[in-house]
Design the sequence.
């Protein structure tokens, strides 16, 4: 299918999912192309006015912004390829993210705010026809905006015969990468949250917790819609459980605070979705074309800081922190299930059979926890001046925050795989059934889990379940690194 976009209203997280993860193509509507052409004509009249200064068009870039270009210099300047800005290397983001950046790039174009030549805008949309896109490094992105990353992606446009004043600048300025990275993090966070809720519900049933820990009354008492979501979801997944006697006294803290920790992750996912939605539909070009009014019949072009999106960083940091906390909870659940004195289950769940011993899985989870703790530190503005240039004195850390949340998300999948093995083995050893709400999860795990007492190499089994969980998170996306 092909998504036809005609206004900023079309830049939603749902459409992002269709294009970036689902692989759909994009076409600009005829009305949008006409509107872009009208704004381009206004812009071309503006730049002929010797009294108008437009950054990067009638002036040089960066530290050369004070230099006024002659009309001849202006035309030569417009065709200089941005290869010198493609200074970063290594650790490319997945193709799904690159597709997302291209989709988000169109937001500045669609209503004429970048004054881009319509043929160039259409060529950008055509990049989403299914071709392999240029690799965009996640590492070394210390620029004041996103020029380093976007130059990798759009450098070859300098060879397009339609390129004119401001076009290349419109391709590499703004913050489409921040929009795409946040949307990618939001989609993955929501999917991981659903997975985590199921695995933790399986763990709670394996521990045979009092169902009152997830009571309906807590929704009103806690006064938090995100915790209420978690309480409802856990009740839906567990139902009445095995229907027999439950533990008559309270479970450990890690089980009782589970709804609140899932609630925190839900809040982080919702915030990421909200910030992704506002970012995708934002105009962030620098300089940006404003509509015509009585004072400016051909519009006005102003310089802005739209290319810096700190809200994206805030959202992705929250996702990483919430995931890191869930890794801690998963490790505590695994430890408590294996401790027979606490869980009232066979100690280490081996029941005297060393080939089924699971006691080392929490050791691995402890490693995931510590790595996640390092990755989930707050991402602040870089403390040193970028490159020493007078104008570019604050770097944008969006790629760093995306990289950290992506890594923590993968570690959460690994910790959940360990907990899933231990939880299902606990139910098997006690001959208690898996609640119907968790049958799909059980089926996915049993594909890789050998029968009871048939021998088990926990590491390889956990790795296969982890890979299955990652495939579930990314669903129809073209790649899941």
Sequence:
């Amino acid at each position: 299918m092909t998504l036809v976009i005609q206004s900023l209203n079309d830049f939603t997280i749902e459409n992002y999912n269709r294009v970036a993860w689902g692989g759909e193509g994009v076409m600009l509507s005829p009305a949008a192309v006409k509107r872009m052409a009208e704004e381009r004509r206004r812009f071309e009249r503006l730049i002929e006015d010797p009294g108008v200064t437009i950054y990067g068009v009638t002036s040089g870039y960066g530290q050369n912004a004070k230099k006024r270009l002659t009309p001849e210099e202006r035309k030569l300047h417009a065709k200089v390829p941005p290869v010198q800005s493609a200074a970063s290397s290594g650790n490319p983001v997945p193709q799904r993210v690159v597709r997302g950046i291209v989709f988000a790039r169109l937001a500045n174009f669609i209503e004429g705010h970048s004054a881009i030549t319509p043929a160039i805008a259409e060529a950008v949309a055509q990049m989403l026809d299914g071709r392999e896109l240029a690799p965009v490094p996640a590492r070394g992105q210390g620029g004041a905006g996103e020029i380093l990353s976007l130059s990798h992606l759009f450098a070859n446009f300098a060879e397009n015969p339609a390129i004119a004043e401001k076009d290349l600048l419109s391709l590499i300025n703004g913050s489409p990468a921040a929009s795409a990275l946040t949307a990618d993090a939001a989609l993955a966070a929501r999917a991981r949250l659903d997975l985590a809720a199921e695995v933790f519900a399986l763990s709670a049933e394996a521990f045979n917790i009092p169902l009152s820990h997830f009571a309906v009354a807590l929704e009103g008492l806690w006064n938090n819609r995100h915790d209420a979501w978690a309480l409802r979801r856990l009740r839906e997944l567990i139902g009445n459980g095995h229907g027999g006697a439950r533990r008559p006294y309270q479970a450990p803290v890690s089980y009782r605070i589970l709804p609140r920790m899932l609630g925190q992750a839900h809040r982080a996912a919702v915030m990421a979705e909200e910030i992704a939605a506002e970012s995708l539909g934002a105009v962030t070009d620098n300089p940006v074309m404003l509509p015509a009014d009585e004072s400016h019949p051909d519009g006005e072009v102003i310089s802005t800081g739209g290319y810096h999106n700190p809200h994206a960083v805030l959202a992705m940091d929250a996702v990483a922190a919430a995931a890191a906390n869930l890794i801690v909870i998963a490790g505590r659940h695994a430890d408590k299930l294996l401790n027979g004195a606490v869980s009232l289950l066979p100690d280490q769940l081996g029941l005297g059979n060393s080939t089924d011993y699971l006691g080392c899985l929490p050791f691995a989870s402890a490693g995931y926890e510590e790595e996640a703790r390092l990755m989930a530190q707050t991402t602040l503005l870089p403390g040193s001046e970028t490159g020493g240039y007078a104008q570019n004195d604050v770097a944008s850390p969006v790629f760093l925050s995306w990289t950290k949340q992506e890594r923590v998300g993968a570690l959460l999948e690994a910790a959940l795989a360990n907990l899933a093995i231990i939880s299902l083995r606990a139910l098997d050893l006690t001959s208690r059934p898996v609640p119907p709400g968790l049958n799909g999860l059980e089926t996915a795990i049993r594909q890789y889990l050998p029968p009871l007492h048939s021998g088990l190499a926990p590491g390889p089994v956990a790795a296969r379940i982890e890979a299955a969980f990652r495939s579930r998170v990314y669903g129809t996306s073209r790649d899941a690194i």
